[in-house]
Amino acid sequence: xxxxxxDDVKKIAHLARLGIEExxxxxxxxxxxxxxxxxxxxxxxxxxxVEPMAHPMDQVQRLRADVVTEQDKREKFxxxxxxxxxxxxxxxxxxx
Amino acid sequence: MHNKSIAELAKGLRSGQFSSVELTTAxxxxxxxHSVLNAYxxxxxxxxxxxxKAADARLAIGDAELxxxxxVAQKDIFCTEGVKTSCGSKILDNxxxxxxxxxxxxxxxxxxxxxxxxxxxxxAMGSSNETSYYGAVKNPWDTNTVPGGSxxxxxxxxxxxxxxxxxxxxxxxxxxQPAALxxxxxxxxxYGRVSRYGMIAYASSLDQGGPMTRSAEDxxxxxxxxxxxxxxxxxxxxxxxxxxxVGLNNSLEGLKIGLPKEFFGEGLNAxxxxxxxxxxxxxxxxxxKVTEISMPSLKLAIPAYxxxxxxxxxxxxxxxxxxxxxxxxxxxADLTDLYTRSRxxxxxxxxxxxxxxxxxxxxxxxxxxxxxKAQKIRRLISExxxxxxxxxxxMMGPVTPSTAFGIGEKIxxxxxxxxxxxxxxxxxxxxxxxxxxxxxxxxxxxxxLQIIGNYFAEDRLLNIAHQYQQVTDWHQLIPNDFE
Lengths: 96, 483
Prior knowledge:
The complex is a heterodimer of chains A (about 100) and B (about 475). Chain A has a domain at about 5-45. Chain A is mostly helical. The relative contact order of chain A is 0.09. Chain A has helices at about 5-15, 25-40, 75-80; strands at about 85, 90. Chain A has a two-stranded antiparallel sheet. The N and C termini of chain A lie far apart (about 45 Å). Chain B has a domain at about 5-255 and about 465-475: Alpha-Beta Complex (Amidase signature (AS) enzymes), CATH 3.90.1300. Chain B is globular. Chain B starts with 5 loop residues before the first helix and ends in a 12-residue tail after the last helix. Chain B contains 15 helices and 11 strands. The interface between A and B is large, with 52 and 72 residues.
């Protein structure tokens, strides 16, 4: 049985910049431990000489000519942003 | 009108039996009448009628394709320019897509009419449609049960005749499982066959869009429009698209069917097993030869999937940050608070669970033990498929271990929910195409037969499903109250 602690879960949530409510920490801890348990089955299989597979067809990234293909859609994209000003996306002050 | 196939509707539109505006209006009325199913998140009535008028004009001048004027519906994972695209999530509840997915463009170019956007599990993460921010969808065969997921709205809408056909997406079974539970036909194409551009990403190396229809013939017509190379999708495969209808009537004499014994073991409901065996007997009568095969690494598909999919999801969903689009929390104290609370308030519980799992699997010290190990197992699974498919033409088995379960029955137990995808997940890891075909009923609830084929053999799968649908009528049955 793999088990995570509540602190582990809070640390992972911080890495993901994901707010989770204090009252839910216990259930996430329990669920994630259950998932990790399921995953320990993977160690039943010897994979020493197996190459990891990232793509179903082992396809590599396609290359294309280095030319501009996208049109400027800045206004369209900014129209759906939570907060913009003078063509910039606004966030709370980062530098003091 | 609402029970006709795409080919029959196309004929009716051309002979002047009805117009696309009339057809579209009939479907819009049905959507209103059966809103209790909660299949749609957004109904685009005005747009649909506009598109129907344009389709009628195209039909009048003889410039129509098979889908011209046919009312279809899009899973709300496909971006539709100017129309809300929520992906079933609160975080995108205010998101009006600024561009179309390639799949949506293709339907528009074909002159299809879009009725609206269909409900789904949040970010396609779920097997019951219960994780949607917009509430559960009901299964038209029994409204106390789930339609499956994540394309639950698509499956319910097609089964209840609230759209002629619909798009779905399948990362671990999300087309095939709801198709099975709602008694419709669903096809997950080979990875790379259908463009993922504008299809909101969950697990990029597994996601694939495909048709959800009443029959294999309709699926062939839909796939014809959806498939093809797309420069805008870096994982799109540049291979010619065959004519999917030309071989539908080919004989199945001598077809070699393999039954993976791992699909018929412990956990499979006995009545579902009997239904699947009866379907396979039909194939024997059609001239197929059936042998048992073995896929030894299949049992590790679920653990490998629940490492790979959450890992990719945690990376993909990092784009939802409350800065450029989507939900932003009120009065953020600083930038970290903005990210953390926007995401915390915007995502639902299942999505958070998978982001946490994926973040953990990719974090320092665990990457090799989980992510690399899972990718190695993925290769072994894919080699099992390649070996099996070099000996048989297709594999068959159940789509799900049981019929539709009750709303609320499994949602509290995520692991149990994950295990309900046991027969579908390995197919995505291998990347091969597979279908769900209506094969009968157990206590009034539909059962789906799964047919798994070789890479890019969608035409063969459609042929095999179509031949079965010539000798059975499961796919034509309509749920009570939705005639």
